Every structure is written in C-alpha cells, then in structure tokens.
Amino acid sequence: MNRWESLIDQKIREAMEQGEFDNLAGKGAPIDLSENPFEDPGWRTAHRLLRNAGFAPAWIEERKDIEFEIDAARNQLERVWTILQNERGTKDESDAKSRWERALASFRQQAIQLNRRIAAWNLKVPSAGFQRKRIDAQREIEQVSIRRT
Description:
This protein is mainly α. The chain is 64% helix and 0% strand.
C-alpha cells in the first residue's frame, strides 16, 4: 500500500470514528442501480424499454454470438476427438484420424475467422475492460485432448 492510500484510509477511519457517516440519507437501504448516471437523459426511456423487452446493446448481442460460435467450434472438435478415441485400435482408426486432421484444419480456420471478429468487436466495446482475448487455437486443441483423455 502506498502512502497516499494509507493517508486516505486513515482519514476515512477517523471520519467513521467521529460518526460522520452515521446519519447519511438512505443508510441501510439498497442502492438503486436501475438508472445509469452516465446515460444520456434523452435516451433513458428508450434504453429502459429495450432493456425491459430483453434487448441489449449491439456489442453485447455480438459478444453472445461470438461466444456461441466459439462453443460450437469447441464442441465439434470434442465430438471428433471422442470418435477418434473410441475407434483407436479398430479398423476404422485411419478414417477417424483423417477426420481428426480435417477437424483440426477446420477448427484452426474457424479460430482465424473468430479472431477477426473478436478484433473488430474489441474496437466496439465501450471500455477496454470488456475486451475479449483472442482464441489460441493450439491451446484449445491441447485442452480438448487433455479433457477427453
């Protein structure tokens, strides 16, 4: 903790000890977070109507779409991996291996496409804290083989 944080903590503690926070308006009541204080008042009603109807800002909807596609790509890869594992030592193993190689190529291509979408999406979000990491295709492939072994 640096000295400024210590000084601030000390001042807050002294104010609490002197009872300066005892009679604040709304003490003990839940905080009303239904209104966004940073929202343009002219848009407040429209945003409330959309939110109540289940709509979200476009960048949030797009994030859901990206996550759905990532999950679908992972699930497809896991299905093919499971088939490969089940057909090990059988006469169909070579077919399963070639299917696995095609699945790997497809997944890598999907990862490239998704990473492009993620890069574009990261430019749209209102704050860097909402940005999403890109997909590391090799790491994802390794995770599938670890989880399914």
